[in-house]
C-alpha cells in the first residue's frame, strides 16, 4: 500500500535476528508495497539509519544493545516519524504505553495485532504531524522501575591505585578498547565495563550518549559548536577537551 504516490518508508530495529526476520515477513503481508529502508540490529545503527533515511514509520524494540528503543524513538519523532514499539514487557508495564499514547506490539507479535497497528499508522499518516516528544519522555519515566538503582559511586583504576569517584564528579565516559575511561577534573581512571552496561545504570536525564563510545554529563556541557570542517562537537565548562557529536545524536541539542 502506498501513501500518496510513493511507498511509505519504514525502519525496523530488533536485535534478535529471528524476531527481526519474522517481523519483516509479517509486515510485508500486513502492508503490501511498504518500503523497508533499514532493518537494524542495534540502537546505534537505528539512529544512523534515521538520520540517513528519515523513515515515515519506525518499529522499535524497546531493549536493544548500545542505545535503547526509547532513545531511538526520540530521534525518530524529531524527524517526523510515527513510532511503534515492540515489547516483551508484562501487562503492568504495558499500561505505560497506553498512557503515553504511542502504539506498541506485545511479543510474540500476532498478525492480527500488527494489522491493527498498520491500520492506525495509515490513518495517522494522512493527518498533520504532531509533536510527540512529551509522550516519549513520559513513557520513559513510567517504564523506569520504582526504586531503580542508579550508579552513585564508581570504583575505577588509576595507575596503581583505585579511585572512588562520585557520579557528580564525572565529566564524561569514553570507550577505549575493552575499557571505559572515566574523565573528571582531577584526571582519568578506567573501569572494565561495556559502555552499554554503564548506560543502564546512569540517569538518562543527566548523562547523554553523544557518540558511539562517548557519554557526557549534561551539566558539564558548555556549548555545542562546529569545527572548521563543519563537524559538531562539545566544549565542556573549564576544559579544553573537544568531544565529537555524531549526526545520530545531534537531535538532543536542537532547540537548546
From TrEMBL:
- Every copy of the Response regulatory domain together lies at 9-122
Among SMART domains, the record links this protein to: LytTR, REC
SUPFAM superfamilies attached to this UniProt entry: CheY-like
Where does the HTH LytTR-type domain lie? Answer: 154-256
GO terms for cellular component: cytosol; protein-DNA complex
Tell me which domain of life the UniProt entry assigns to the organism this sequence originates from: Bacteria
Instruction: Output the GO biological process annotations, alphabetical, semicolon-separated.
Output: regulation of DNA-templated transcription
Q: What is the lineage of its organism?
A: Bacteria, Pseudomonadati, Pseudomonadota, Gammaproteobacteria, Lysobacterales
Q: What is this protein called?
A: Response regulator transcription factor
Concerning Gene3D superfamilies, the annotation shows: 3.40.50.2300, LytTr DNA-binding domain (2.40.50.1020)
Q: Which UniProt keywords apply?
A: DNA-binding, Phosphoprotein, Two-component regulatory system
Q: Which residues carry this modification: 4-aspartylphosphate?
A: 61
What InterPro entries does the annotation carry? CheY-like_superfamily, LytTR_DNA-bd_dom, Sig_transdc_resp-reg_receiver, WalR-like
Q: Which GO terms describe its molecular function?
A: phosphorelay response regulator activity; transcription cis-regulatory region binding
